[in-house]
TrEMBL record:
Pfam families: DUF374. This is DUF374 domain-containing protein. Residues 67-142 form the DUF374 domain. It comes from Methylobacterium iners. InterPro entries: DUF374.
Amino acid sequence: MSLVKRIGRSAPVQQALGILAGHYLQLVRRTNRFTVVPPEPDPWLDGLGPFIAAMWHGQHTMISFMRRPHDRIATIISRSADGNINTIALTRMGVRVMRASGARGRVVRDAKAKGGAEGLRAMLRALKDGETVAFSADVPKVSRRCDAGILTLARFSGRPIVPVAVVTSRHIRFNSWDRACLGLPFGRGAMVFGEPILVPREVGDEAFEALRLRVQAELNRVHDQAYALVGRQDRVQGSQNRIEPEHHAVGTSA
C-alpha cells in the first residue's frame, strides 16, 4: 500500500475528512432552494410510517437531505475504509449508520448470501423500531439496475418501498461505476418521492420480477422528474447498466 493510501486510511485523517464532508453537505443543503414533490409532503410521509427509501447508489450522500428534523433515518454502509468517511459525514447529517453488507440478490431470501443476511437483519430491526431505512437499489457494480435485495427487505418487513431522487442544478459527476453525483452550493434542488410499492410476503417468481422492474422504472422516473425541475438532464441516462472502472477521477462539473 502506498504512503498516500496509508495516510488516507489513518483514523485521524478519516475523522477529519468525515467532519469536513459533513459540514460541506450541510452547506449544500442550506444554500440550495429545493422544490419538493409532492408539495407539502409531511402528512403523506407521516402516514406512510417507517418506509424503505430506495435510491440509486450514486445518491448515497445527498439522500440525507430528505431527512426532516423529526425523522429517524438509518442506512447501511460497508465496513470498508472508504465507508468510514461516509459514516462520519452521514452521522453529522442526522442519519444512523449501520456497518454491514447490504442484502443483495434473491439468495438473501434464504439468508445464505455472505454478509447479506447480517445487513438484512439490521435493516429489519431498524424498520421494526420505527426508523425509515435508506437503501441503494442497484445491483453491485451495475448502475441503475435494480437488485432483488431491496424487494427482499420489503417482503420480510411489510414496509413499502418509496423511490426517492435528490438532485441539484449545480453538481460534480464522478467517473465511478455508480456515476456518483455531489451537489454544489448556491443553486436549485429537487426532492421527488415516488409511488409507494408493497411486496407481498407470499410472491411468486414472475410477480417478484415484475415488482423489481416496477421499482427500477419508478426510480428512473423520479430522477427524470427531479432533473427536469432543476432544468438539467440526467447524464447517467444512456450509460445505464454499464460497469464503470473502479477509479474515482472527477468528471465534469456544472
